[in-house]
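wait is this the right file?? whatever heres the structure
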């Protein structure tokens, strides 16, 4: 069953948001653009006014904005989302300038500078680039600027072709990057419903969720639109990523609701709250970055990792998958191919293959390495 609170268990929004000092707000394509893919300048202007109000209360806001492809389609007169990569990238290149100019002009009214931060999945998968992005965002806040974060669609490949709802995931990761207490996902629907409201008039808005389950994912399906690439499923996936670091997520209709009213406790949308298993910032990065390979471990190693809090030693490894290098992120699976953990590996795939199943004392002789035998040290690992 879904972990949905009964009415008497729903927390007071005003109390829940009382300690929020930093917010990441994500605006979906269907909020940023209107008919014929023109930019929705009214929504952007309202956001700027809300951010200006929030800043007087000591609340900082970072914006993750979709809309580059959509705005580019509108400017170029393209009716349907392009399918070829070069066309998508060119459309996004046109749209990114339009989107940023709209934000710049809206915030200029309040004498608030904005700074564009373009990111790709590769930036966030690489630890040093992840930290560089974190430092850039922190410095923008210190300068008094509002970060406007966009997926770098003009050069991205996987994000445009393969990934669905990448900006939802990006917004969740940015909430960790800036240590936000709340992720507000503003979309074109009112929140998460008990059924598809377009097909079932009796569908009810779910106001509060604690713990996202497979039943809930099955309920919302995976539908997106011809312009946007997400759907409610990707919103919940983003909420789950945010919850890993102990952060709240509100999914609400950005065409109807402003950020200032939301922070004042207006009872709108669906509030997703984390359970009690918050991860550190580094653990979240390990959990959410793309793995480069897999090592399969025996039952003894699985127990030592999950229950004993141990590092991964070569003696427990039974199989090596993929071609990874030392320092890459790899998954750790049990014999049933269930991922138990992820971590930064000390050796390349060929070296791990040579020492798998070997005792610790044999590693130095096999690899001529006297720095230690841990394949993945506990300090560089997250256990699921």
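ok assuming it is, sequence goes like this
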């Amino acid at each position: 069953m879904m972990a949905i609170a009964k009415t008497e268990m729903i927390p007071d929004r005003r109390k829940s948001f009382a300690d929020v000092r930093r917010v990441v707000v994500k605006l979906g394509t269907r909020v940023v653009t209107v008919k014929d893919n023109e930019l929705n300048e009214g929504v952007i202007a309202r956001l700027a006014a809300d951010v200006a109000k929030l800043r007087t209360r000591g609340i900082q806001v970072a914006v993750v904005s979709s809309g580059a492809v959509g705005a580019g389609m509108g400017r170029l007169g393209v009716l349907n989302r392009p399918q070829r990569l070069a066309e998508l990238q060119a459309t996004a290149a046109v749209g990114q300038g339009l989107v940023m100019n709209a934000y710049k002009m809206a915030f200029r009214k309040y004498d608030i500078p904005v700074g564009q931060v373009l990111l790709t999945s590769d930036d966030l998968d690489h630890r040093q680039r992840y930290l560089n992005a974190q430092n850039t965002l922190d410095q923008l806040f210190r300068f008094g600027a509002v970060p406007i974060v966009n997926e770098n669609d003009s050069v991205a490949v996987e994000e445009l072709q393969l990934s669905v709802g990448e900006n939802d995931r990006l917004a969740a990761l940015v909430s960790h990057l800036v240590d936000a207490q709340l992720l507000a996902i503003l979309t074109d629907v009112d929140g998460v419903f008990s059924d598809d409201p377009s097909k079932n008039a009796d569908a009810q808005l779910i106001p509060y969720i604690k713990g996202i389950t497979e039943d809930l994912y099955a309920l919302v399906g995976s539908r997106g639109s011809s312009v946007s690439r997400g759907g409610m499923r990707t919103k919940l996936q983003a909420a789950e990523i945010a919850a890993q670091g102990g952060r709240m997520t509100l999914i609400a209709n950005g065409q109807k609701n402003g950020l200032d009213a939301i922070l004042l406790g207006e009872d709108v949308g669906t509030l997703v709250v984390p359970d009690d298993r918050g991860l550190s910032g580094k653990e979240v990065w390990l959990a959410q970055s793309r793995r480069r390979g897999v090592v399969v471990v025996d039952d003894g190693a699985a127990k030592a990792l999950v229950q004993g809090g141990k590092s991964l030693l070569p003696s427990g490894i039974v199989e090596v998958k993929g071609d990874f290098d030392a320092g890459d992120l790899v998954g750790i699976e049990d014999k049933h191919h269930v991922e138990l953990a992820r971590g930064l590996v000390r050796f390349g795939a060929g070296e791990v293959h040579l020492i798998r199943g070997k005792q610790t004392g044999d590693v130095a002789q096999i690899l001529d390495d006297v720095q230690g035998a841990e394949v993945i040290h506990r300090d560089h690992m997250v256990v699921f």
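Residues 1-8, 160-164, 223-230 have pLDDT under 50 and may be disordered. so i think its the right one actually
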